[in-house]
Amino acid sequence: MRIEKRRTKRIDVDVTVSLRQLGDSFVSGYSSDTVDVHVIDISKGGIAFESDYDFKINSYYDTIITLANKESFEAVIEVLRKDVHGANNVYGCRFVGINADDQFKIDVYQLLHDNGEAQ
């Protein structure tokens, strides 16, 4: 049985965002300033995304996340873990310094999602 370590509830999402690296080289084999990734879930604490690129653990990225209810916010994320799933990797990330207003946007989205109103 797997032990749940997350502090906050995750919500399934289907969003594509662009990540811009903060610091040194970040993706092996990639030379652009940004990388588009597919976000698969979100919580007040962070996101999980899929990508075929090799992101380094403990690296930081800037992004803008737009939820299905059209709320958006800027965030800095830190990559904490990587799981290999076929051709793609799934990365677990935490938000760094997310403010209360942006956490509230995620709370509202979660309520809409739980009531079947978020798409």
Overview of the molecule:
InterPro entries: PilZ_domain (IPR009875). Residues 4-103 form the PilZ domain. GO terms for molecular function: cyclic-di-GMP binding. The protein is mainly beta and 119 residues long. The protein has one domain: Beta Barrel (Thrombin, subunit H), CATH 2.40.10. Helices cover 13% and strands 51% of the residues. It has 1 helix and 8 strands, in the order ββββββββα. It has one helix at 100-114, and strands at 11-22, 27-28, 34-42, 46-51, 54-55, 60-66, 72-85, 88-96. The strands form 2 sheets. A 6-stranded antiparallel beta barrel has the order 1-3-4-8-7-6. A two-stranded antiparallel sheet has the order 2-5. Strand 3 and strand 4 (46-51) form a beta hairpin. 19% of the residues are buried. The mean pLDDT is 86.
Concise summary:
13% of the residues lie in helices and 51% in strands. It is mainly beta and 119 residues long.
Distance between the termini: 31 Å
Percent strand: over 45%
CATH architecture: Beta Barrel
Extended strand count = 8
Tally of contiguous helical segments = 1
- Detail the poorly predicted runs: none
For this structure, what is the CATH homologous superfamily? predicted glycosyltransferase like domains
Q: Provide the gyration radius in Å.
A: 14 Å
Q: Averaged pLDDT, please?
A: 86
What CATH calls the topology is Thrombin, subunit H
Succession of helices and strands: EEEEEEEEH
Describe the global form: globular
- The secondary-structure class comes to mainly beta
CATH domain class name: Mainly Beta
Helix content: 10-25%
How many discrete structural domains?
1
Main sheet overview = 6 strands, antiparallel, barrel
Protein name: PilZ domain-containing protein
Domain PilZ: 4-103
GO molecular function: cyclic-di-GMP binding
Pfam families: PilZ
